[in-house]
Design goal:
about 240 residues; Rossmann fold; 9 strands; nine-stranded mixed beta sheet; homotetramer
Chain lengths: ~240, ~240, ~240, ~240
């Protein structure tokens, strides 16, 4: 189980930021710590915006079973060639977990084919995450609801295609609702979008969030050898007409 | 457009009840008034528990394009033979709108194949009804959100099959969420479950609820001549093997 | 992994029948042999129409993780009380695999809420089973297509609700198509309908069919402790309004 | 009802081609004639690869309710800026019908987020188009099956996201199957992919194909004023926290 966590790493470098205070090891560090609790067998590596190819060279991607993606400030600075490589790997079967503000990231919006816009408010809301697919492996062992004491608000309408499975719906103090956990398939790749998590709140230290992320990684693992469905449109050859 | 509204009519007969005060013409009367605003061409008739066959004889059902169903206290007193007739007509193409506590009605649970259980609290909540399928005809002209000042709480987990289309998600004052508007197809019949509406609150006088119900009726209208898919398993006959 | 295979057992008792010749151990015996190849850890028991409670007492059902169901001639002779017990166990999480002509069985039609009718022709067709969800665990290791040299024809329109996942589509010599592998969730129970298999053809000796059935059993295993979603509609109590 | 038909127009310019012989008015001409039979109120205009902006200027797109797209030889020569405009208009609500080999067109693949690859064979097959969603408006009045005497083969696996609605499944003489009619929503835009139709066969003169295309156009008509869901992530403002 080979995991790569991409965190753009901008907030972590802002001196005196809330992010630095909440996440001395970076958000990726908190996420990795959570994953290790549940997936001790996993090997985890990190990737960041300011590395060459953002740390996501073709070699790294080829050795990645599941890629988690956290971005916010610097979506536009992500290299289109890297984005294409990520998408090609998803098509081949790599799992992909876009987190929180990665709803607007290049790989996610290109895999969805929609704007992925949503409503937003920066107030300090309580988020409740309710399970609507109790038998889905991503919901295994998750309380109903998950209670997140401090969080910004993401609200409907969330401009995504109809999910394969809608797993979580959140409510916020203001009464808004959000489809906060949803799965998609693109090619051979499984995608799990999960919205809880923010650079201004300690959500990535929350044990229930750790469990969901670990469940998501396990679920998104490739089930077939890396391959591509983008075969040339060759005649079947092997199969005769009746 | 031939509409039949079944209202069991129990609460309306309880002297001094809130229902009598809120709905002097019965909940069915308020619903009918709302439908007439948007569907002036519709002919509407009523059916009640204490009529012979609950007012749902085979003749009435044969002349019904869309059946709305409100029940709460007297699910068990509905005759199984009538339930079978309703289900057969849904399979033939009759539209069906189970409302609010009709989640536990015999026709709805038998069409779903699940328990249709949910969480419930009788407190006086504010319900906000958010649209998640903005292009669906049932959401046409509906504000985002619909604001219902007084309502009991229906919460997840709602034990239904995965809907064809999830149109509305509600939140409540307590922070709970509910898939409050969802569509299903069974045979040739279109089904729209819509939860807002209660005998203790004036929800069926709410103009936005009127609009949703009228949209739902229009959407659920049969599109084919009444027929059945339950053909005998006869050989195709008309079609030769290649 | 505790598996029960219900086979009504009518064709097996018809002296000189094709079924007796093709399946000296019964169709259930051939299915069990196939499952044992892929699931050596499984314990398998059998149930038949002419046993008390058809072999499906509450005790047996309580000890069953996944129930396979083969029926054809004797759907009407299955006791309604047993059917109710089966459905309650599916709601609690028991996996359920209705096979071939079990499309018309009482448990399947009641879980679907539709007639489950289909087109049929008794000629000796070649059936090709094509995978349309290559990442689904039920399709793991399955050739594309599975080739079944002799089979009767099942054709669209198949009157089922929209499946959660459509996994296989079959074609037949006559040019007909059929959604031959489809999944559903009802309550906490996972359901996989799979059409290949017949009392007149040796389909249940086919190694690829064995693989699909084993994949289906593994996929349908309960993921939660046996429980019911049919909670009384009690106030939440544990959760305060905000 | 303002329709634009984009036909790249390459085959029509090849002297002596089958396309010239079968389609003296171009494939777009045959499609337009078919649409006019069923949609006499529609205004139809044409767009081609070799026009400035391929005939799809922002003004033309702004005046288009539904865009049909036929392309094959020249997908790569379509300007990325035009593709972006088309996608933006789909997000705003413009209907979109990619036809046949447009499965590989830039707008369709970008809206899907997948490769949209498929299996192919150039032999002269008989295609049968079976309806699996009989109540869907796109299937209204369509025979079961549509019989197309001459056609090339498109087969599974078709690398698309799970459709909103699967309407048609085709079989071919070789026994292959294909999800030949499927709908998707992207933003406010409705998309109907329909595979029958080819430059080498007279499929676009087939009256049943005309009916499906007309049904598809009617279904894909925008239901809301042109707008965008890609709102800035501004605070809600209008809505107070509870």
């Amino acid at each position: 189980m080979r995991i790569t966590i991409y965190n753009e790493g901008v907030h972590e470098q802002q001196e005196g930021s809330t992010t630095q205070r909440l996440y001395p090891e970076g958000m990726h560090g908190a996420i990795a710590a959570g994953l290790r609790t549940h997936l001790p067998e996993a090997s985890i590596r990190f990737a960041h915006l300011d590395l060459p190819s953002h740390g996501l060279t073709d070699d790294v991607l080829a050795e990645t079973d599941v890629l988690l993606w956290w971005g916010h400030e610097a979506h536009d600075r992500v290299d289109d060639a890297v984005v294409s490589s990520v998408i090609r790997r998803v098509h081949e079967g790599m799992g992909f977990l876009p987190l929180h503000s990665a709803h607007y990231s290049k790989p996610f919006t290109r895999l969805m084919g929609t704007t992925c816009s949503l409503r937003w408010r920066g107030g300090n809301d309580r988020e409740l995450v309710w399970t609507v697919s109790p038998t889905h492996p991503i919901a295994a062992g998750v309380p109903h609801p998950i209670i997140i004491e401090g969080q910004e608000m993401y609200g409907e309408h969330f401009d995504i295609p109809e999910p394969d499975d809608l797993i979580f719906i959140s409510s916020f103090t203001g009464g808004e609702v959000f489809r906060s956990g949803a799965t998609f398939t693109r090619g051979l790749g499984k995608i799990f979008y999960f919205s809880p998590g923010d650079q201004e709140y300690p959500v990535y230290h929350h044990p229930d969030i750790h469990r969901v992320l670990a469940n998501g990684v396990r679920w998104a693992m490739p089930t077939l050898p890396p391959t591509t469905l983008d075969a040339p449109m060759a005649p079947l050859g092997w199969f005769e007409k009746g």
